[in-house]
Fold this sequence. Notes:
This protein is mainly α and 69 residues long. Helix content is 49%, strand content 0%. It is built from 2 helices and no strands. The protein is flat, with a radius of gyration of 18 Å. It starts with a helix and ends in a 28-residue tail after the last helix.
Amino acid sequence: MASGEFLEALWYGHHPLSLLLAPAGWCYAAFMWLRRIGYLSGVIPVREIPVPVIVVGNLTVGGPGRRRW
């Protein structure tokens, strides 16, 4: 299996290694949830800056529509 195919299989959950990495993803999701709650409750202070900020989001790994299963 070529490295590109390996990474695609890993990314889309079609590889046994995906099961080993799932708990790390759950821990990350829990940390992000706690962080969000911290910001919303005021425990973590929010800094406002005087300049506009541009956020680029919704990027995909491998490009959109590349799934071949």
